[in-house]
Specification:
alpha/beta; TIM Barrel; 8 strands; about 15% strand
């Protein structure tokens, strides 16, 4: 079965440390009820066995909701749970190596921080790229300096594959990211750390739609 990157406005990433003590199932179920159609599992500080079980849960939830499920970094776990794809960073396995493991049908996303990395990811056969960090962010360790809106504008003009703007994006600044040309934005703490996740998704979506007019 060919997996495709969905045409959607919000890309959600899990983070247990920012979820206000709520379970992964609670958070992701709320995101899916709110209409989020792509969820990435990114938990850096858990044992492999726990990550496998959590990804099995998320695979079931996303399948039931008709949503796309991406696993960060762990190609082995992505394959074991039949995820739709895997996302890798600049320090992880290269796209060609990942493709040899996951096959032609699965989605590969790559984090990029500038035009040269964008061009390289496209040339290597990535299905989508992350563009960022747009703003300063504390949700990921060892993150590079913010790349700003200029790189978003560059990606909007030059990327031949879908891109996701990521890094420090909140309800209060997402309009500027959309105005720079992003059609899909990733929010982490703003969503998983919201008191009412469904309401936050609705507010962010409305702000994005207004900025796109």
């Amino acid at each position: 079965m060919q997996r495709t990157f969905p045409t959607t406005d919000i890309y959600a990433i899990t983070d247990n440390n920012l979820s206000l003590g709520r379970s992964l199932e609670h958070v992701v179920s709320a995101l899916l009820r709110a209409g989020v159609r792509i969820v990435q599992y990114r938990e850096k500080d858990k044992d492999a066995g726990i990550m496998l079980e959590e990804c099995r849960l998320l695979r079931r939830l996303t399948q039931e909701a008709g949503a796309c499920f991406i696993v960060n970094d762990h190609v082995d776990i992505a394959l074991l749970v039949d995820a739709d794809g895997v996302h890798v960073g600049q320090e992880d396995l290269p796209v060609a190596a990942v493709r040899s493991l996951v096959g032609a049908e699965r989605i590969i996303g790559v984090s990029t921080h500038g035009p040269n990395q964008l061009a390289q990811a496209i040339a290597q056969g990535a299905n989508y790229v992350g563009v960022g960090p747009v703003f300063a962010t504390n949700t990921k360790k060892n993150v590079c300096a913010p790349v700003g809106l200029d790189y978003v504008r560059h990606a909007a003009k030059h990327s031949s594959i879908p891109f996701v703007a990521i890094g420090g994006i909140k309800e209060h600044n997402v309009a500027s990211v959309v105005a720079a040309g992003a059609t899909c934005c990733c929010l982490v703490s703003e969503l998983v750390g919201a008191d009412t996740i469904e309401e936050k998704v609705a507010h962010v979506r409305a702000t994005m739609a207004q900025a796109d007019k």
